[in-house]
Backbone:
């Protein structure tokens, strides 16, 4: 047995690398081929604009990754974006200075956190499948956003507030810096903390998690609160970028977020996933969006292509699982 | 090779997985119409070999598989079934929402025009079941059919498919002794119909009782094939483990100390009622009973997984409130559950993660989990319990059953519990791993732990326990000491008799035996 391993280990590693980083290669391939096809695609300007686009639904996707690793889902994040953008905009409109900006960001995340707390509590204590709980929240949060804004966009006229979405630091857009910071913290939380390990345990086998003394209910509530807070943050970022809050913002973003997570290789069956791979998934969607836009592809066709790519990613995941 | 003599021939079959050579030039030749036992320790490669036959794995190039004189290279289970192979897996998973007859014809339903011919389905199912002497109502919902019967149905299906070879993978794991006897009868009837049987088992008794020939594989290598009549138990064990081992486990006596765990009037209506027992330091306390007697439910209640409704639990004489597993863990109780897949393993997580999950705090270094610390501890456990795994980062689903079980035991040992509850700890585990687990149990008792063990294997329970509580239908029949406990006494108590009656009956029978001999 031992003598036979040396060769096998080599093969194993190549397979393993392809398995683990296959999506990274696809991202590079996608970017390279678009760079050849489109003049000016391989430029810092394009890359930064992709990153900026990705940063907002990318942050949502990180929260969704946590939910999916527990074998759950969060469908409410797009609606929470709308609600948070409206709340933030109505707080900062006509104000000056960073004080109110900080309050607006805090309030947006708080509102998102409350939505998440409701999602989590219904899922954990009411034993309602998260698909249903967050579907309900998706409708409710958008309803509240409409109510708060009277169905109209709310101007976010505050120089301090909009400077977050407009400004740059060390040449990087503010939104991208927030994305990097959130990703870093969440990656450490997921891979190196007790909470993170419990998230995996619940997705791996919820019965075992209980036997091991994991407080499944509290952990689930925390997961959905985190997802909500991140969606709230994304909503506030969007308001700052768009100079406004709008109850129609974030439409279908939850699906982009889920797609990014799944393309990144997080298993919908739970127990498997990571923040870095979720970022790769989000970048693939971002690069594709930008490329199709710059090529002038019909937006309807863009939707169709995106749908096909999501299905391809899930098929690939299923194929991998069959082999293993 | 004489083609007329063998129904199945496998020559030099190898299978390499990433990092492991699971099978190395294995041979398996099954004579027509024989029952051929296949034995080997956990991870020996039995399942891999069977999965090759069933078209789930493709073997490495170089080997030859012949079925009834024809080259046999199934691409899928359906392919294998069409060629005349049938398998009764270790864990049966029928469609519970359909009837017995529906399950029997699943995937090959007879039709009348575009409609199902339910009448023919029921009649034909009934015919085959009656032919084999399996008492079962064909219209009953599968969810009402016990596991043992579901297994018999699977065997009947193989007969109706006119299979040439029937593979049975450890069929008696979940069965009571009466059910095992019935299974044997039916297996013999199947053999009488000319179907050859490959019977995978860990149990020596079964192999000697049923099989004509036995093949042994060890660590992926073919060890040999013998006629069952030409070999002794000791020889067979030696072939399997490759080292000498006393067949019956002889345990050392251990000093027993003060009472650690007391259970008083514990009740959970519908599951168990008025359960009373106590376990002392250094004591191995067995719980016996038939499947469904409520044994697992009692320990799950003690552990707080499914808490009791009334009664009390005392530890060190102090009453404790255990409403969730965390309470039990804090009070120094560990539980290795019966069903590894359902309540034990996190299948797609690593060996390390599976081991350390109940308490991550020892591995935290400045707020974060240190994978270095965790792997060091996991490696230590791996060496101590001799867990066979490429690395501790390997996904636990890739390990064999016995090694998975060792990981689960290590999980609780890491918490250094005072009380360790083991629910069927050797279920689906081979002789070698069993002996290691027995040794470990006695070692833990010597260290002053109180051990509670549930087992359906009577000999195992008798060999290990200082005292045995027997349960029948959710009630406690009584507790017997090691000196009074015999198979007969426990069987009678498991049927509901009290300890006094059972012991008296056993003495009578014993005297009668001696009287007859004189």
Residues:
């Amino acid at each position: 047995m031992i003598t036979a391993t040396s060769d096998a280990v080599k093969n194993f590693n190549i397979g393993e690398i392809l398995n683990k980083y296959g999506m990274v290669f696809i991202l590079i391939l996608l970017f390279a081929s678009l760079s050849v096809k489109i003049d000016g695609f391989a430029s810092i300007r394009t890359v930064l604009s992709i990153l900026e686009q990705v940063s907002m639904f990318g942050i949502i996707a990180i929260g969704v990754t946590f939910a999916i690793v527990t074998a759950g889902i969060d469908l409410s994040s797009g609606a929470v974006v709308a609600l948070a953008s409206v709340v933030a905009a109505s707080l900062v409109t006509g104000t000056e200075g960073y004080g109110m900006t900080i309050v607006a960001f805090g309030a947006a995340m708080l509102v998102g956190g409350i939505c998440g707390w409701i999602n989590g509590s219904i899922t954990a204590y009411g034993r309602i499948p998260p698909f249903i709980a967050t579907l309900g929240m998706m409708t409710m949060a958008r309803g509240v956003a409409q109510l708060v804004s009277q169905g109209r966009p709310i101007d976010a006229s505050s120089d301090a507030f909009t400077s977050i979405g407009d400004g740059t630091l060390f040449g990087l857009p503010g939104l991208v810096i927030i994305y990097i910071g959130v990703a870093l913290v969440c990656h450490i939380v997921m891979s190196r903390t007790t909470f993170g390990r419990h998230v995996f345990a619940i997705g791996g086998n919820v019965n075992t998690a209980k036997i091991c003394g994991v407080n499944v209910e509290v952990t689930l509530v925390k997961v959905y609160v985190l997802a909500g807070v991140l969606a709230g943050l994304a909503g506030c970022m969007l308001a700052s970028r768009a100079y406004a809050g709008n109850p129609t913002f974030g439409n279908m973003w939850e699906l982009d977020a889920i797609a990014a997570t799944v393309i990144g290789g997080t298993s919908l069956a739970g127990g498997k996933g990571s923040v870095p791979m979720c970022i790769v998934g989000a970048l693939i969607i971002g690069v594709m969006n930008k490329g199709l836009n710059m090529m002038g592809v019909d937006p309807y066709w863009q939707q169709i292509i995106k749908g096909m790519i999501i299905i391809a990613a899930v098929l690939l995941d299923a194929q991998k699982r069959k082999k293993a | 090779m004489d083609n007329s003599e063998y129904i199945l021939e496998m020559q030099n079959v190898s299978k390499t997985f990433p990092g492991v050579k699971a099978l190395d030039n294995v041979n398996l030749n099954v004579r027509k119409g024989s029952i051929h036992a296949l034995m080997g320790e956990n991870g020996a490669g039995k399942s891999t070999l069977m999965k090759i036959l069933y078209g789930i794995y493709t073997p490495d190039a170089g080997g030859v598989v012949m079925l009834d004189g024809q080259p046999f290279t199934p691409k899928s289970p359906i392919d294998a079934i069409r060629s005349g192979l049938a398998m009764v897996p270790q864990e049966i998973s029928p469609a519970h929402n359909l009837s017995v007859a529906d399950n029997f014809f699943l995937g090959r339903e007879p039709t009348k025009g575009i409609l199902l011919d339910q009448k023919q389905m029921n009649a034909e199912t009934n015919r085959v079941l009656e032919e084999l002497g399996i008492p079962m109502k064909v219209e009953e919902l599968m969810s009402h059919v016990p596991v043992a019967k579901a297994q018999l149905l699977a065997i009947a299906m193989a007969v109706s498919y006119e299979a040439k070879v029937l593979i049975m993978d450890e069929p008696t794991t979940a069965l009571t002794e009466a059910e095992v006897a019935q299974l044997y009868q039916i297996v013999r009837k199947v053999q009488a119909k000319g179907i050859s049987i490959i019977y995978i088992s860990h149990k020596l008794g079964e192999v000697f009782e049923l099989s004509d020939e036995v093949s042994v594989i060890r660590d992926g290598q073919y060890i040999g094939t013998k006629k069952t009549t030409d070999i002794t138990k000791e020889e067979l064990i030696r072939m399997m483990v490759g080292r000498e081992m006393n067949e019956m486990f002889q345990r050392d006596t251990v000093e027993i100390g003060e009472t650690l765990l007391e259970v008083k009037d514990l009740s959970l209506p519908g599951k168990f009622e008025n359960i009373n027992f106590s376990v002392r330091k250094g004591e191995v306390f067995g719980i016996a009973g038939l499947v469904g007697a409520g044994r697992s439910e009692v320990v799950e209640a003690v552990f707080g997984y499914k808490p009791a409704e009334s009664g009390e639990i005392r530890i060190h004489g102090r009453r404790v409130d255990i409403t969730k597993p965390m309470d039990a863990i804090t009070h120094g109780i560990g539980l290795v559950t019966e069903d590894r897949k359902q309540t034990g393993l996190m299948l797609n997580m690593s060996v390390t993660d599976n081991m350390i999950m109940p308490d991550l705090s020892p591995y935290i270094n400045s707020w974060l989990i240190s994978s270095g610390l965790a792997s060091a501890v996991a490696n230590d456990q791996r060496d101590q319990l001799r867990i066979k795994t490429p690395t501790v980062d390997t996904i636990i689903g890739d390990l064999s059953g016995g090694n998975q079980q060792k990981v689960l035991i290590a999980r609780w040992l890491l918490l250094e519990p005072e009380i360790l509850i083991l629910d069927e700890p050797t279920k689906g585990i081979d002789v070698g791993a069993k002996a290691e687990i027995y040794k470990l149990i006695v070692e833990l008792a010597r260290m002053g732990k109180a051990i509670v063990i549930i087992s359906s294997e009577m000999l195992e329970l008798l060999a290990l326990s200082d005292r045995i509580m027997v349960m029948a239908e959710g009630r406690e029949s009584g507790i017997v000491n090691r000196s009074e406990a015999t198979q007969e006494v426990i069987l009678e108590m498991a049927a509901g008799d009290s300890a006094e009656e059972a012991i008296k009956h056993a003495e009578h029978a014993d005297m009668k035996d001696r009287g007859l001999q004189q």
